[in-house]
């Protein structure tokens, strides 16, 4: 499940305004990149471009040397994107949520619940979850199916210390099996040896 992500001379525009230009990066199997910069610098925008959700205004984005735009479905399948919104249906339970995604992607919903400390909440409607519990459920989805590219926008927002440590275990496992992690953050993340990309 390994591969190299490369961006060359990327530019992105939001609302008609250039947010960044001339941005290049490369992430090899097992690597982690931290996207840093002030509010509005373009970190979320860059993650959306890398996820294939936003077309770059200029530049080239490749996976294993092939343009990702040439096969958007393949890029979607290899990517797990965690945005600011947790995209959780309030009527479903955490187990139902993860079971839905497991049917699409594979993996074990019970294991994913346990990894984020959510087993005791498995049968509650998601509308009753706290903000941090919802974030943990969104993070638990990362465990379903092996995707080589994880793109995470403020993954620790709202998490308690124990959950940050649990996330650290997930991130280390992803890198250990040759996956890539790119994370935008204003907070310290459990990503030892991550390279920093400043916007
Ligand atoms: N949907 C949109 N329409 C127009 N402009 C947008 C849109 N989304 C973001 N922008 C603008 O693009 C710029 C970059 O926003 P982005 O969310 O990528 O920044 P960020 O670095 O992630 O910020 P933060 O640290 O606050 O999360 C900002 O100036 C923002 O106002």
UniProtKB/TrEMBL annotation:
Matching Pfam families, A to Z? Answer: ABC_tran (PF00005)
One MF term in GO for this entry? ATP binding
Q: Where is the ABC transporter domain?
A: 5-199
Q: Which InterPro entries match?
A: AAA+_ATPase (IPR003593), ABC_transporter-like_ATP-bd (IPR003439), ABC_transporter-like_CS (IPR017871), ABC_transptr_haem_export_CcmA (IPR005895), P-loop_NTPase (IPR027417)
Instruction: Write down what this protein is called.
Output: Heme ABC exporter ATP-binding protein CcmA
- Source domain of life: Bacteria
Q: Which organism is it from?
A: Muricoccus vinaceus
Q: Give the record's keywords alphabetically.
A: ATP-binding, Cytochrome c-type biogenesis, Membrane, Nucleotide-binding, Translocase, Transport
Q: Which SUPFAM superfamilies match?
A: P-loop containing nucleoside triphosphate hydrolases
């Amino acid at each position: 499940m390994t591969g190299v992500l490369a961006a060359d001379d990327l530019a992105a525009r939001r609302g008609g305004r250039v947010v960044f230009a001339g941005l290049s990066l490369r992430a090899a199997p097992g690597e982690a990149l931290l996207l840093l910069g002030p509010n509005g610098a373009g970190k979320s925008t860059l993650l959306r471009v890398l996820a294939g959700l936003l077309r770059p205004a200029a530049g080239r984005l490749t996976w294993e040397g092939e343009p990702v735009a040439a096969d958007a479905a393949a890029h979607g399948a290899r990517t797990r994107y965690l945005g600011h919104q947790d995209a959780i249906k309030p009527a479903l339970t955490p187990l139902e949520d993860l079971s839905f995604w497991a049917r699409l992607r594979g993996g074990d919903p019970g294991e994913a619940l346990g990894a984020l400390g959510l087993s005791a909440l498995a049968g509650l409607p998601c509308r009753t979850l706290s903000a941090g519990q919802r974030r943990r459920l969104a993070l638990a989805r990362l465990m379903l199916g092996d995707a080589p590219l994880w793109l995470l926008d403020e993954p620790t927002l709202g998490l308690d210390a124990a959950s940050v440590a649990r996330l650290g275990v997930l991130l280390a496992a992803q890198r250990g099996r040759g996956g890539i992690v790119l994370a935008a953050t204003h907070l310290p993340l459990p990503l030892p040896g991550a390279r920093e990309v400043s916007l």
